[in-house]
Amino acid sequence: MQTHRSAKNLNNDMALLDGTMRNLLLHIAYNGSRYHGYQVQQNAVSVAGTFQPVLEKILAEKVQLKGCSRTDTGVHANDFAVSFKTNCRIPCEGLVRALNNDLPPDMAALRCEEVDEEFHARYSCTGKQYVYKIRNSEIRSPFEQDQVWVYHKYPIDAEALNAAAQGFIGTYDYQAFCSPGGSVEDTVRTIYEFTVRRDGEMVEFSVTGSGFLYNMVRIMVGTLLAAGMGKIPCTPEAIRAIVLSKNRARAGGRVPPCGLYLDKVYYEPIEGQQS
Fold it and tell me: What is the rounded distance in angstroms from the CA atom of residue 2 to the CA atom of residue 159?
C-alpha cells in the first residue's frame, strides 16, 4: 500500500502545469481463465473492467483506455498493449511498480513508454503473434489447468502439420476461418509466418499476421488437427484450397480458448511486410 500512496503523491506533486497530456503505451500480461474477454462486460468480469479501475485509482483521474485487440473469454495474453492519455506525471517505471502492487495476481504490468500524441494501441498496430499450446498426452497436468489444451485423440505429427501450415502464408480473404458474430466487413488478412513445433508432449502453434478475424487462430489450429487425423489432406495445397474457397464448412472445428495466447504486438514493420 505504501507504493500506491507514493504514486498518488507523485501525481499531485508533479501535476503538469501547461495542460499538455501525455500519451502512454502500456504492455500487460494476464491469465485469461477467469475473464470474459478484454472488453468491459455489464454482468461479467473482464480484463479491462479489472485493469482500468486500478489504473485510474493510481492516476487519480479517468482515462479512455484503448486496447490493441479483443481477446475472447478464457484467452490469455503474454503481451497485450493499451494506450491512454493522462495528465499524470508519474514516471513510467513508477507507474509499472504501482500497478503491480495493486493488480490481482493473474495480471501484471510489463513495461510502459511515452508515445506520440497520434499513437493508438489498436490502429497503430502493424501485426500480432498468437501462440496455441497443446499437451499431446492422455495425462493432464493439474498445474496447467486452463493454460493448455490436453489433446490425446492421436499423436500429433508436428513436422507434417508445420508443412501443411505453410498453405496459410500470404494475403487472402479468410472468411473460411471466421466464426459467425464477427463485426468486421473486410476479411482480408496477411499471414507472415506459421510454425508448428513439438517439445516433448507439448505442441506449440505460432502464427504471425497483420491481424486476425473472430476465432481465426482457433479455427486454423482446428483445421490443421483435422488434417493430421486424415479428415482433409495434410498438405499446404489442401490448406490453401480451403482458404481460397472462403467456405467456413470446409475448414476444421474451433479448438478451445484455454490454449490460446496473444504473444506479441507489433508497432514496427514485420519481416515480409510491405512498407
Answer: 52
State pLDDT tens for residues 53-70: 999 999 999 999 999 998
The set of residues, in sequence order, having a beta carbon less than 8 Å from that of 23 and lying 6+ positions away, is: 83, 84, 85, 114, 115, 116, 117, 119
Q: What phi, psi does 67 have (nearest 5°)?
A: -95, 150
Q: Is 79 a catalytic residue?
A: no
Q: pLDDT tens across 212-236, in order?
A: 999 999 999 999 999 999 999 999 9
| CATH of the domain spanning 127-266, picked from 3.10.450.120, 3.40.1280.10, 2.60.40.1120, 3.30.70.660 | 3.30.70.660
Tell me the β-bridge partners of 128. Answer: 209, 265
Is 30:46 a contact under the CB 8 Å cutoff? no
Its pTM stands at 0.90
The three cell numbers locating residue 220? 486454423
Would 2-115 and 127-266 be classified into the same CATH topology? yes
Please identify which of the residues 72, 79, 106, 146 carries the catalytic annotation.
72
What CATH number labels 2-115? 3.30.70.580
C-alpha cell at 195: 510454425
- State the alpha helices, DSSP H only, in 26-184: 47-59, 92-102, 158-165
Domain ranges for the chain, please list them: 2-115, 127-266
Residue 215 CA to residue 221 CA, distance in Å, equals 10
